[in-house]
Amino acid sequence: MLNIMGLGLRGVKSLTLEEADAIRESEIVYFETYTSISPQDTINSIPSLTKGIVKPADRKLVETDKEIINEAKKKNVTLLVTGDALSATTHNELRMEAKKSGIEVRIFENASIITAFISRTGLFNYKFGNIVSMPFVYENFFPVSVYERIYTNYSNSMHTLLLLDLKDGKTMHVCEALSILLKMEEKKGKGLINSGIIVIAGIGIASENERIIYGTLEKIMENNPQGSPASIIIPSRMNDVENEFLNAFAMKI
Fold it and tell me: What is the fold of 2-108?
């Protein structure tokens, strides 16, 4: 048995009753540590929920090693994922591998940054285009395809959720992401990313320190918002209701 379980955004506090029961029944609980960020000390809270073994699971263990699959063939195993169970492609790949191995798989859904951040701003879910991931860039790695995806969304009057890459347990800084977008604009020259474009920054969504701020790109960079995890929304044309909601639910700077 393999349970692929969404932990939500508040650590063990956001586990459902059904999820808590499944964890208690698990002989091994893997806590996935690389696709998203949970509240501090989440992994230290898990042993109180189970008599089973608790192990951190890095990228290699989930994507390359066969340990989880081999254990799930003979034991009741749970993989805990921050956010929703299947938002990341890698978890569906593990699900597929388990299915091919004849392992029963149960999915436990939960809230993710994809739903929580968008809904908190008041912007309409159906007006979002493709989700875009912003990776860290290097001398020989500068993927302007990020810019093209945002531009396509914007041109089609669709908002863009920009998920920021992780390193050393923290997301990319908001201003670093915006600086990269400005450099991409220099290369592409389509006039999308400029000092006056509206940007929404969400920091610590669903935590006690949650902040949602919005303003022009210039104002956001002047404000230099700190904190992790962080995400960005680049809205396209907002209607009157969206504007009213955003003004009510976020802080303009």
Answer: Cobalt-precorrin-4 Transmethylase; domain 1 (3.40.1010)
| Percent of the chain with pLDDT strictly greater than 90 | 93
Superfamily of domain 113-252: Tetrapyrrole methylase, C-terminal domain (3.30.950.10)
pLDDT-based confidence at residue 40 (cuts at 50, 70, 90): confident
User: Any idea where the domains of the chain sit in the sequence?
Assistant: 2-108, 113-252
249 Cβ contact partners less than 8 Å away, ≥ 6 residues apart: 120, 121, 122, 212
The 3-state DSSP class for residue 96 equals helix
- Is the pTM higher than 0.85? yes
Using the 8-state DSSP alphabet, how is residue 224 labeled? Answer: -
Q: What is the pLDDT of residue 97?
A: 96
CA distance linking residue 209 with residue 225, whole number of Å: 12
Q: Is the pLDDT of residue 38 over 90?
A: no
CA dihedral sign, ordered 165, 93, 151, 120? negative
Residue whose entry in the numeric block shows the structure tokens 């041109």: 155
- DSSP letters of 22-42? HHHT-SEEEEE-SSS-PPTTH
Bridge partner list, 128: 159
